Amino acid sequence: MELFPEDLTNTFEVKDHFNFGGYGIIYRAIKRSNGQMYAIKAVARNSTGSTWKDIGAELQVLSWANPYKLRLDSFFVKGETFYMVIDYCRNGDLLKAIVDKISADEMFEEDEIWKYFIQICFGLESLHYNGFTHRDLHPQNILLDENKDIKIADFGTSRSLQTKTIQGVASYQSPRTHSGDPQAKESDVWAVGCILYYLCNLEHPFGDNVNKIKNAPHRPIRSEYSNELRYFVDWCLKKRRIERPKIVDILTHEFIVNKTLSLGITIPQASAMNAAICQIQLEKERERNEQLEKELSKYRKENIVQKNEIEWLRAEIARLSSIINGNKKSEKGLKDSNEDLLNSQTIKINQDLIKNNETEKAQSIQELREKRSEILNRPNDPELEQDFRRTCSKFSSDVSVDQQAYQDYTNAYRQKTSLYTIRDDDNNEN
User: Does residue 384 carry a pLDDT above 80?
Assistant: First the structure.
């Protein structure tokens, strides 16, 4: 490998460099024109496992616009070495972040795990959409920029789906890959599942044990995490490739869509999630319209009922008004009729009173006449005299007594008194 070309030092200020993968060098350099730090990947044509075809594939992938993979700034060739100027990620790789958590005896926050998971899926989406697979996805190939956003790196092993060769770290290869089958999109999903599990439990689900990878179930993730997170780990680590989701299945899942929006994760313009969001919004709009239609239908029915009630009330008011008007017209006649009835009843009552009076008078007269006879027959009876006085007093206070009867009793009293007087005189003379 040649040293960094001297003629490029006018463009870049090299800070340091380190080897990677056994077949290249990464230079950390500042671009003099803008003062930004870049990583310059230098790969020799004769490096182990590296050909111009491999470099061409990586260059093609880096040229696609996607915020969650490394971006190619520029490239140039010097002799047998190819130089790619790409984004520099200040926060290292995901493996370093995992090791830091283990060292601090801490766990990742669940929302942080969701963020990494979703951004990794966004980064793979553009590869799969263009017919490529990464084939070597693991925490060291996932970088973190200054905002700790994901940047997928090392596309040197990326190949089209027609490629039959097998590449990558064994512990992140799927069961079918270990059985000799070509790597497919679902193989990248398996690697994503391993990374997701690693973030949750801070350990690999199977390690390097191929038999466990092919046959053993993984242990559940920590109970501190949600059932939704457990669901996606289990889904991505299905042993049978056909049971695993595609990246687009994950990104268009309603839960992932809502989680992406709630966390404020930037959605790439070309992502299928945008269509899913539109579909979800249309579905919600349809549900709202259905609900509004139900409410409108209910309102219409209530309006019809109210209208019928109003019409009934109007008819009832008209009927009552007619009755009131009719009553007013017959009120005078009814009053006259009542007066006539009252007069007739008064006359009858008076007649009854007169009749009763006459009966009482007759009885009183008869009583007095009997008293008169007793007085005349018993002139010297004191008790009879007192009784007579009481009877006369009672009779004289009755204004309705016949005057002739009263006169008769007065005369009888006088005769009685006269008899007493004569007898007294006779007694005196004797």
Answer: no
The pLDDT tens digits for 328-350 are: 666 555 556 656 655 665 676 56
The C-alpha atoms of residue 131 and residue 351 are separated, in whole angstroms, by 126
Contacts of 335 (CB under 8 A, 6+ apart): none
pLDDT at 430: 44
Predicted TM-score (pTM) above 0.90 = no
Return the DSSP state at 47. S
Amino acid of residue 389? R
Q: Which helix (H) or strand (E) holds 382?
A: helix 382-396
Cα distances (Å, whole numbers) of residue 239 to 84, 119, 179, 228, 230: 37, 24, 12, 19, 16
Residue 139: how many other CB atoms lie within 10 Å: 22
Beta bridge mates, 143: 93, 151
The DSSP letter of residue 243 is G
Torsion angles phi and psi, residue 282, rounded to 5: -65, -40
Tokens standing for residue 36? 């930004």
Cβ contacts of 30 within 8 Å, gap of 6 or more = 12, 13, 15, 36, 37, 38
* β-bridge partners, 271: none
Q: What angle do CA 11, 14, 20 make, to 5 degrees?
A: 120
Backbone angles phi, psi at 266, to 5 degrees: -70, 130
Identity of residue 22 = G
16-63 confidence digits (pLDDT tens): 887 765 567 889 999 999 999 999 988 877 665 556 667 777 788 887
Q: What is the DSSP string of 148-189?
A: --EEE--GGG-EETT-----S-GGGS-HHHHTTPPP-HHHHH
113 touches 188 (CB < 8 A): no
- Which residues, 6+ apart, have CB-to-CB distance to 70 below 8 Å? 62, 86, 87, 89, 143, 151, 152, 153, 155
